[in-house]
Target: Polyamine aminopropyltransferase
Amino acid sequence: MAGLPTPNWLTEIHQDAGSAFSLQTVKLLAEVQSPFQLVQVFETTDWGNFMIIDGCTMVSTRDNFLYHEMMTHPALFGHANPQHVAIIGGGDCGTLREVLRHPDIKSVTQIDIDEQVTIMARQYFPELCESNDDPRATLLFDDGIQWMKDVAPESLDIIIVDSTDPIGPGEGLFNRAFYQSCLAALKPGGVLVQQSESPLLHVDLLCQMRQAMSDAGFGALQTLQFPQPIYPSGWWSCTHAVKGTEFAEPRWQDAQNRPFDSLYYSEQTHQGAMALPPYLLKAFAAE
Amino acid sequence: MAGLPTPNWLTEIHQDAGSAFSLQTVKLLAEVQSPFQLVQVFETTDWGNFMIIDGCTMVSTRDNFLYHEMMTHPALFGHANPQHVAIIGGGDCGTLREVLRHPDIKSVTQIDIDEQVTIMARQYFPELCESNDDPRATLLFDDGIQWMKDVAPESLDIIIVDSTDPIGPGEGLFNRAFYQSCLAALKPGGVLVQQSESPLLHVDLLCQMRQAMSDAGFGALQTLQFPQPIYPSGWWSCTHAVKGTEFAEPRWQDAQNRPFDSLYYSEQTHQGAMALPPYLLKAFAAE
Model:
């Protein structure tokens, strides 16, 4: 063991955790400073292409299926009849693709602040963008916080917040004011889904998010866990919040008979993701 | 993002995966070259103490509960009446401690080649060693492969192989000859448990291990997944192999009423760990 050789290695240091993760690169494929952020894509030796925004790990070809499948299918099969979906962030379009695998979905609106991310995703992650031209999809490049304030009340079944971390540009997506906009935009029984960081490293943040969701008026919460190797600790989560007093029973039969292939998602891994470790349940019980 | 600053960072490069993981250190606490290997313990900024053997990540104070609980409790609750257990490797004694939490266990024999690991674990991971002096425990420092050849036939209920990777000193623990010794040592219905690397990075190895277990005569296999942040990809697995035609139904009621606290393990996370992603099931089906 030693410090990393700097050439050909890209390292993200997780300052608050005293850890770091690195991928070995072959070359820089593209680098664009947009009005919002620096977007870079590298070719790696073993993880396919790798997108970084302002130095933060976003997505790799090799392991994004974990995140994208688990940010979408549990929420969609957890709702009785989802038809209208909004995605805040999600500019790589992988979440959009997964949502559109569900044949009963009627509309998906994706609102990412930065078109540059999608432009580069189309070029370097074309498989994630294969549903961008689906007639049910609308891609907007705009401020998601404002969009959520303005959208028609009770017009959405599912809102998926697929954003950067709560520090920096994504910060406004992790507070009570934003959650109140989401609550107003959801139909009764509607579900908000948000990536909620590492179950090992970010327990305090997770508890704060959940508290803010409750304070905004969501009636029940469910955090799910799944692997995500390129993110801090390799272990990630999303949190579901329902407009109502409790979640519907997931449509397990539909999940089992899903009319699409998935790599990580199944009705079993969905149930597995809902099984939280005792230490986390204890932290949530103290909320 | 950049190459890591070398001072105060310890990095393990996963050559076969093009990735690396680093922890920020405060200082080296101890370093001993034993007759078998170089054993080092560092104090880290956020992960407690951290043991490295021949440059390979072994155990941290912060996250070892994931590995130790999941290497033990699913197998023990998955057996109808486990009484006699052997641990091959496991010199940090964390696996031993978890096994001894089960009140019906009558004997546990731990066989690690290198006493130096246990000497340093006692000093720097005392919580893992708190059951070393349990009258049911026997700690041997010897060759586990030979021990398994020599042990009385049908004398064990559970064998836990808590070893280093299949490259290097641990290599002889991942082949058919060793598995045949294990099979002979197990009573009917007995279970072999072995750490089986990353479900993302080491699928080929996992399939080879499973094939070798089948070839040795084990009648059914079950791979379980769980998070393990300091190991490659942060996602790890163990594989159970049963002497018999099928696994017993786990003792879910006993798991639920377990007379000890656990941080990650519960009957729900046990079930969750058994839920494997479709891509892995497909790889196993092609075995």
Q: What stands out?
A: DSSP finds nine helices and twelve strands in chain B. Chain B has two domains: 9-60, 64-251+263-285.
